[in-house]
């Protein structure tokens, strides 16, 4: 098994026939796991990492949704950057301001080219697939320079698509997604969700599967209480281990930090746990890139008794309003300027603007052999473990998956309720164990994808 992550970010751009001219005229694969010993875990935070967008996005989404959330900042940025490549005027300037892009597109090209190369190297111990594709209406011819740039810099291909043939367009898009995600997402879009006036659709998918370096033994699993609020407790399944981890305590954040390393030394799963049961809202207010970098730098290897709930949930959201609040307003209106994408844009009533950007994600976090340990219940004594440091994630927390070499955040989210999934919250299981076990070594966590679909876009200009 392992920890899976599949996130699909969709940016749907519809062509509309404008009643009047815009105010701004556009200007002219999977690898097998290596079980070799890699117990020497070294973590050095990337201190020159300066991308504040990730945490702004997480905080904005967290403020809008009271339940569990999961986002992929990387997936959204990869969908947006191919639009930036074809933008001009105020649209381009807003990208530069909000996304911290250089005014030289060649520098942005180089940054993402290097990032993608780093993310996908040394894949013997994990699986990561990152793909972006532009589906362009067959009545429009992409500019040769644009097609070359998005291919070389972002590994993005442009696929001619007849959006008026809804069934053919559905099959084309779903076939690509199905292949990229190893068959885990077979239907991204339905034919009746495709509109005749769609001119362009950008789709990005990020698939990640990693295996814990330090195993959580299945026999150490147990059931116990989780405080969804300071006064409300539910019974959930926990996994536990005692081993050496990078750990830190932050007075500034009033929280504990823990890093769970994946095999391969390239990725880590981080948990930021408030010291108080109702402290997540305050943590969200205080956390920012600069503060977090300081705390990550101060983490040290310690022997820690770790208790973490197992969880699985899906999450979907529209990011249009948030991105406009950040300052990306031009691309959502009839002032959008994307002349660098294709010929024929801005003439004959064909204009490109972003109608909506949606993302759906999901995560499953547990040990290997989840079908076996769901029923595992162990009666425990009072002794917890051999360490004087305990990390008991028995109340809501933040988490993120970071690529160590670049500091890039693949996924980030908050865990409010381990029983919440994409359906009704299941009834509480009967609890037989109330105390966590001691443990050593690791097993895994994983992400099981579900079918993903996009919501039919709104034809109105925001």
UniProtKB/TrEMBL annotation:
Keyword flag Coiled coil: yes
Identify the main location: secreted
Q: Name one GO molecular function term.
A: serine-type endopeptidase inhibitor activity
Please list which residues make up the signal peptide.
1-18
Q: Where is the composition biased (Polar residues)?
A: 430-453
Q: Which UniProt keywords apply?
A: Coiled coil, Glycoprotein, Protease inhibitor, Secreted, Serine protease inhibitor, Signal
One GO cellular component, as annotated: extracellular space
Q: Where is this region: Disordered?
A: 415-462
Coiled-coil portions: 102-129
Q: Which Pfam families match?
A: Serpin
CDD domains from the entry? serpinK_insect_SRPN2-like
InterPro entries, alphabetized? Serpin_dom, Serpin_fam, Serpin_sf, Serpin_sf_1, Serpin_sf_2
The domain of life for this entry's organism is Eukaryota
- Give every Serpin domain span: 55-418
**Subcellular localization:** Secreted
Q: Family per UniProt? A: Belongs to the serpin family.
Give the protein's recorded name.
Answer: Serpin domain-containing protein
Q: Which organism is it from?
A: Photinus pyralis
């Amino acid at each position: 098994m392992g920890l899976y992550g599949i996130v699909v970010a969709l940016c749907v751009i519809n062509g509309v026939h404008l009643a009047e001219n815009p105010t701004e005229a556009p200007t002219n694969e999977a690898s097998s796991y290596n079980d070799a010993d890699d117990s020497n875990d070294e973590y050095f935070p990337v201190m020159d990492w300066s991308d504040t967008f990730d945490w702004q996005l997480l905080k904005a989404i967290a403020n809008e949704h009271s339940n569990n959330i999961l986002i992929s900042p990387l997936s959204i940025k990869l969908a947006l950057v191919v639009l930036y490549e074809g933008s001009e005027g105020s649209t381009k300037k807003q990208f530069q301001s909000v996304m911290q892009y250089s005014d030289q597109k060649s520098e942005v090209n180089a940054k993402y080219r290097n990032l993608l190369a780093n993310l996908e190297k040394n894949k013997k111990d994990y699986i990561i697939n990152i793909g972006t594709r532009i589906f362009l209406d067959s009545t429009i011819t992409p500019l040769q320079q644009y097609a070359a740039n998005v291919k070389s810099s972002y590994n993005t291909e442009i696929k001619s698509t007849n959006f008026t043939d809804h069934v053919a367009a559905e099959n084309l898009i779903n076939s690509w997604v199905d292949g990229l995600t190893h068959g885990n997402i077979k239907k991204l879009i339905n034919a009746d969700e495709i509109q005749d006036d769609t001119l362009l659709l950008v789709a990005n998918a990020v698939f990640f599967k990693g295996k814990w370096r330090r195993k959580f033994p299945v026999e150490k699993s147990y059931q116990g209480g989780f405080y969804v609020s300071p006064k409300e407790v539910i019974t959930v399944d926990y996994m536990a281990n005692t081993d050496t981890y990078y750990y830190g305590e932050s007075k500034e954040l009033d929280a504990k930090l823990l890093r769970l390393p994946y095999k391969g030394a390239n990725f880590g799963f981080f948990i930021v746990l408030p010291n108080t049961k109702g402290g997540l809202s305050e943590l969200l207010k205080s956390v920012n890139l600069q503060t977090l970098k300081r705390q990550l730098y101060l983490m040290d290897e310690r022997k820690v008794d770790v208790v973490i709930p197992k969880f699985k949930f899906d999450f979907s959201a529209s990011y249009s309003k948030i991105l406009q609040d950040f300052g990306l307003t031009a691309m959502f209106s009839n002032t959008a300027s994307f002349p660098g994408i294709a010929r024929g844009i801005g003439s004959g009533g064909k204009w490109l603007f972003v109608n909506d950007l949606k993302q759906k994600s999901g995560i499953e976090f547990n040990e290997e052999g989840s079908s076996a340990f769901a029923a595992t219940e162990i009666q425990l004594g009072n002794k917890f473990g051999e360490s004087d440091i305990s990390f008991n994630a028995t109340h809501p927390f933040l988490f993120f998956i970071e690529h160590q070499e670049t500091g890039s955040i693949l996924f980030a989210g908050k865990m409010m309720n381990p029983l919440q999934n994409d359906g009704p919250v299941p009834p509480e299981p009967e609890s037989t164990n109330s105390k966590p076990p001691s443990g050593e070594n690791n097993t895994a966590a994983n992400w099981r994808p579900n079918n993903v679909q996009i919501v039919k876009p709104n034809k109105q200009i925001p």
